[in-house]
Fold this protein.
Amino acid sequence: MDPNEKPSFTPYRKWGIGFNVALIVVIVFAVLVMANYLSREYFARVHLSSLTRHELSPRTLSILRSLTNDVKVVIYYDKNEPLYSTVAELLNEYKLANPKVTVRVVDYLRDAGAAQSVRSDYKLAPPADKNLVIFDCDGRSRVVDGHALAQYTLEQVPGETDREYRRKPTAFLGETMFTAALLHVTQPKPLKACFLQGHGEHRIDDADSLTGYVKFSGLLLQNYVEPHPVSILGTNDIPADCNLLIIAGPRAALTEPELNKLQNYIDQGKRLLVMMNAETAGKPTGLEKLLARSGILIGPESIIDPDHTSSGSDVIISAFSRHELVNPILGSGLYMIRPRPVSRIHDDKLAADAPRVQEVAFTGAGARMGLNAADARRYSVMVASERTALKGVISERGAARTVVIGDSYLLANNQLDFLGNRDFAAALVNWLLERTQLLEGVGPRPVSEYRIVMTSAQARNARWLLLGGLPGAVLLIGALVYWRRNT
């Protein structure tokens, strides 16, 4: 080396490089600090994948954003349970949507002290009470059974010899049940829905697939509305604490005193749901004249729609007007069975303070009423009525609202799960009760499974490939590289 040659790195250059490195470190650190600050103040999460399992529905998000009280959620679960990770991830979404929701995990098999505390606080009885999700707000608690969070079907496990079956999850009900529990613990008192009885109406305790309303009753409970059967025959009157009166498919005519009580109920600005059906086509029930005073016309016969049917007697309703009632089912439809037409009366003689009636759902243009094939046209099968100001009447829950539908079977046990009937049922009840934050439905979510089916021989070959073949290939490549560099 030439002693007179200048060093390649002068002190000035060394200090310059050091300064540049230090500056880059400071800049990176500042960017990280700003990113963390912005994520805390303006936190937003975007679900980009169609496979994302835990994106909350608009209805759940609305409820969470309206929370003002602290809600404690305890996941009292065995962490080895198949559904545990799904439950924990979903509840983490609740916590991220509103920091007032706190989630605590207690593994009752591995944390005996915490498990004993939870059992004492919520009066749990081991060993039966396990795999639970507990919601608690201001002393009100609701326990969700983890065994009821999914729907299952039996599936044969592929095998070479003996037949073996397993329970395969097909739908996850977690968000439906968790949001219902959230409503239960955050609302001071459930609302009351009264089902009129005594005229052959659908019954809320009937499990019959075609006529029973037990599933609809369960849906009301999920929305924190308690269903109660009522009779107004004789001296009985509509209960004063009735928030919503439901008349579901009466088959016999109502008496004059009953109709007078209903008229008085309407005049007080209350909430009313009336559903007719083909059983009373051509047989007046008295409700037709009663509702005509409010500007609502119920047709005398049932409707068939040859262009929108799957069996001839059913009608697929997919045409809707702009209304909150049907927002959750736009792009889907309603499944009805021979509905009766329900429309608005165009009459200038109606009182000035008559409710505003809007036609909401329609058949196709080729539908016809009764056997008159020549009279093919579009029919309205549902109206929504609203009256915001009643002279001399103070309503505790805002506007007086009425919905009249030409078919009562769309909410029966079997039909409730067809098309958009379930989401519509939830929106229907919540619109009538003026709970706008609940107008989006929450239904079961399908469970997707990705499984590799192999025989025992294939599994053995795959095991040797993964445990021996891949590591051996890496070692062989490393040996070849080493040999090449040293020769």
